[in-house]
Amino acid sequence: MKKGIFLIWIDEHRQMVERVTLPLIIVLMICITFLFSHTGGVKLGYSHAMYIPVLLAGFVFGFRGGVLAGLVAGFMLGPYMLHDVIGGDSHSAGNWTFRLTVFTLIGFLAGLTSDSARSYQQRLKWLLQHNTLTNLPNRNALIKTLEQYDITGDEARTFLLVVVCCENEIELKSAFGSSVVEQTILQLADRFSRLCTEVKIFHTDLSQISLLFRVSYSEIDPLLANLLEDSREPVLYNNVKIHIDTRIGYFIFNDAEELPEDCINMAEAALIVAKQTSRDMVAYNPAIKTATEENISLLGQLKHALKMGQLALHYQPKVQIDTGRIYGAEALIRWEHPSRGMIPPVKFIPRAEQSTLIDVITEFVLEQAIQQLAAWQKAGIDVSISVNISTRNLLQPGFTDLVVRLLNQYDLPGELLELEITEGSLMVDVEHTIDELKRLTQLKIVISIDDFGTGYSSLQYLHQLPISVLKIDQSFVRRLPEDQGAVYIMEAAVMLAHNLGLKAIAEGVENKQIYQFLATLGCDMAQGYLIAKPLPAEKFVEWYRQYAGTYHHSDSTS
Ligand code: C2E
Ligand code: MG
Ligand code: MG
């Protein structure tokens, strides 16, 4: 048994250890005293044997036990004991009081050492079970609680494990600093603790709280509704009211077969679905598990897919609205899976972005796109190519160098390459991102903000960013011109772009009506199914040649 585990074992079985040790100490002391009085007295030096029960007392009962045992031992070998049994000499007061003092001191020190080791161990145990930022019980504590619960025997009630996640954590941190997340978690935990008498609260991830309820089935729905409402109430930070975007995943179980880790995974899988589908709250169901497993296995196959040439780029044209010139193409990744057919990027890119896989993918996409650019330039197809990159790429050391190396390798000027970065992701590390973007714009590479209008408050940084294009998200574009709200947003976005000296491009242009409306708004460029869907490289060339480089509506489009 490892030493650490032995100490933990003693700690967990303290009562039993104490019950065994106390009589042992008494018996040892009596035996040692008996030994002295019958073998020749204290002078023979057996008195050292008395250290054993004294140390044992200190070790098991702490410093109080050690001192008490030392005093008892000192008196037992003290005034009533002869110094030399054969010679009949009693020993001096100085002699036995000195021994008593030494025993007491030894007992005290042994106890102190044992107490310190125990409190250190307690601290370690606490750290293992708590989040040090908020002092709330952590994921290990939740697992332990689930292990210890007796699930059987109460058919009327069930367990409800709820995971609440604060989605705008990055935005909050960049605006107020990291302590805002701790404050948010603490205030939410306080609110949730009042929802139900039988609730246990855990801080299971940086911006995630898990709640374990024991409730009757009829209580579940109202409880979840109250929970959602409470989680969306603003929190106070330095007297400022802060809005929190929360999403909830939950799992209901009353089956003793479920392992604690599985229960947590299931509630978290439901939370992931809530995030992916922008729903407030999602309950776990077995279909989620299958989808999650499929996603994970998909990610595992991605590297292999790259090697096997299953990934390819399709190109979607972009045109200038006033002249119709086909000036560029967006490279969009496609995965032709041997058994599952075409897998769209939304199925694997967001997951890859959370891992280092996105670095490999972006390197592949950049290389392919730049190679294609060189081939098209040679063939007289004068279009720029844009590549989607994630902030993770930008923050990766060596990213800019990779871009420079590839452009040099194919002897291409920077202005033919455009990098699209989504608005929300710019908020991760604004300073660093701006520095990297500046290095790229020095090479004349065009930077555009993708999905503009869907991110958070990067408006405050917009004028600092070295960007040239705002790409307005298709969710607004597709609602034009009927939806008045979308019209206002489009007008404002186009005006904002122009006032900042940027170009505006609308993505998701699906019909002629939208295209014409964009022209009246003064939007510079357009991209969408009306013009063309993303096409494989050779199809793109055919399409481009068919239009001779200038787009015009064909009669078949409406
Ligand atoms: P995105 O960059 O905003 O790309 C535009 C998406 O809208 C593409 O979807 C495109 O096919 C689709 N689209 C274009 N016009 C229309 C239209 O008129 N109507 C509709 N309904 N959709 C239209 P896709 O190819 O599925 O890509 C989805 C997202 O995946 C992209 O959004 C981008 O964020 C990401 N993505 C694609 N390829 C890559 C890549 O190579 N690297 C990275 N990091 N992300 C990529
Ligand atoms: Mg894009
Ligand atoms: Mg987009």
Task: Record keyword descriptors for this entry.
19 strands, binds ligand C2E, alpha/beta, 20 helices, 8-stranded mixed β-barrel, 3 domains, Alpha-Beta Plaits, TIM Barrel, binds magnesium ion, 558 residues, 5-stranded mixed sheet
**Which kinds of small molecule does this entry bind, naming each only once?**
ligand C2E, magnesium ion
Mean pLDDT: 88
Whole-number total of structural domains:
3
What proportion strand? 15-25%
How many extended strands?
19
Q: Helical amount among residues, as a percent range?
A: 40-55%
Q: Could you write a compact summary of the structure shown?
A:
With 558 residues, the protein is of the alpha/beta class.
Task: Describe what you observe in this structure.
The chain contains 20 helices and 19 strands. It starts with a helix and ends in an 11-residue tail after the last helix. It is elongated and about 125 Å long. α2 packs across α3, α3 runs antiparallel to α4 and α12 runs parallel beside α14. The mean pLDDT is 88. It folds into three domains: 126 residues, no CATH class; 146 residues, Reverse transcriptase/Diguanylate cyclase domain (Alpha-Beta Plaits), CATH 3.30.70; 183 residues, EAL domain (TIM Barrel), CATH 3.20.20.450. β6 and β7 form a beta hairpin. The protein is α/β, with parallel strands linked by helices and 558 residues long. The longest helix has 37 residues. One magnesium ion binds next to β15. Ligand C2E binds next to β11, β13 and β15.
